[in-house]
Each structure stands twice: as C-alpha cells, then as structure tokens.
Amino acid sequence: MKFRKVVLTLALLPATLFWACALTAQSAHPTAERQLQLSAFGAVSGDFTGLQGGKNFAITAGGDLGLPPWHGIRPTIEVRGRFPTDHGEVDSQKDVLGGLRVDFLLSRRLRPYGDFLFGRGQMNYGLTGYLDNYNNLIYSLTTTYIDDEGVGFDYDLTPHIAIKVDAQLERWGSAPTSSGHIYSSVGTVGVVYRFNFDRRRR
C-alpha cells in the first residue's frame, strides 16, 4: 500500500509542477493537433506483485492510436504488454492489456494521461512453485483476467520522441490468497516514438 502511494505520487508530481506553466503557455500558443496520431513505446518496469512481497523487473511495450482531440482532451486506444526479465523470488507477472487512455493536452510538450485497461495475465511462482497454506497446494502458475487503472505523462523532446513515466495499479482476478485476488503496482519509465503522417507542426 505504501509503495502504491509512492508510485502514484512520482507519476503525478511532474504533471503538478508543470501545470501552472502549461496553463499560462496554452493561451499564448495556438494548437494544431493532428486528427489521428499513432505512436509506439518501449520501457522498463518495476513490478511489486502484491504477493508476499514479490517483485521483479520487466520490459513493457505497446502502442497508442490517438483519436481527434476535443477541448484539450484526446481519447486514445492503447494496447500494452509486460514481460518479466527475471523469475522473482516469489513470483513474476506478464500480461497483455488494452483499453481507453485519456490525454490532457496542456502544452506543446507535456501530456498527462489516465488509462483504464483490461486484459489477461499470467503469474509464474518462482523456481519451486508457491505453497498455498489455505488449501495445501503448490501452484506453478495462474492465468486470470486483469483490471488496470493508471496515471502518467509523456514529455515531448522532439516532434517524434517523448519520455514516458507512468504508474499502473492492476487487480488480478484470481490468486492463491484468502481474498482470491491481488493488487500489483507497476512503475514504468520509457521512450515513445510518434509516427507523423503530415508536415504540420504544433
């Protein structure tokens, strides 16, 4: 729970710091956002799995299709996948998610967003499996559905390249716990590439 608050704070802090400047700059710079915007990203993630202190690192990759903006808000369709780079002492997690992301076009460079994703994931339980003390069973893996909510921001370095920072809170629908589910906290830092289909600049 404490880590979850830290991750969300880290993701929101830069957006908060830039907020006042962005609102001032917005009135001084007319926007000419593209009607459709396609981008792809690659990143590294730290995953606190929510199961007995489990944690591991992962590679995250995905893509976004930005729809026409409306009053400074751009709805976006997002797909992302996360793949662990290690087994973890307790467990490791991988998933594929898709859903809606909402970008807030505050300035020329800063794009805070929130996303609401859904998908499937798999937990692998270390090298020797996971002992469920409630049912006296040893699990090797669990596959289940995931609900995900996240916040983050993209910060444009060039018209094509941006830095991404975000935090996701995942609810895994099936797990060997007394409640039957777990909450996983994922922090991500990466690079975004935007495919520009015309010469118009913001």
In short:
With 202 residues, the chain is mainly beta.
Would you kindly provide a written description of the structure presented here, covering whatever features stand out?
The chain is mainly beta. It has one domain (2-27, 38-195): Porin, CATH 2.40.160.20. It contains one helix and ten strands; from the N terminus they run H-E-E-E-E-E-E-E-E-E-E. It has one helix at 2-28; strands spanning 37-48, 55-66, 73-84, 92-104, 110-124, 130-132, 137-139, 141-156, 161-172, 182-195. The strands form two sheets. It has an eight-stranded antiparallel beta barrel with strand order 1-2-3-4-5-8-9-10. It has a two-stranded antiparallel ribbon with strand order 6-7. A hairpin with a 6-residue loop joins strand 1 (37-48) and strand 2. The N and C termini lie far apart (40 Å). 34% of the residues are buried.
Lay out the secondary structure.
Blueprint (H helix, E strand, L loop, with lengths): L1 H27 L8 E12 L6 E12 L6 E12 L7 E13 L5 E15 L5 E3 L4 E3 L1 E16 L4 E12 L9 E14 L7
Antiparallel strand pairs: 1-2, 1-10, 2-3, 3-4, 4-5, 5-8, 6-7, 8-9, 9-10
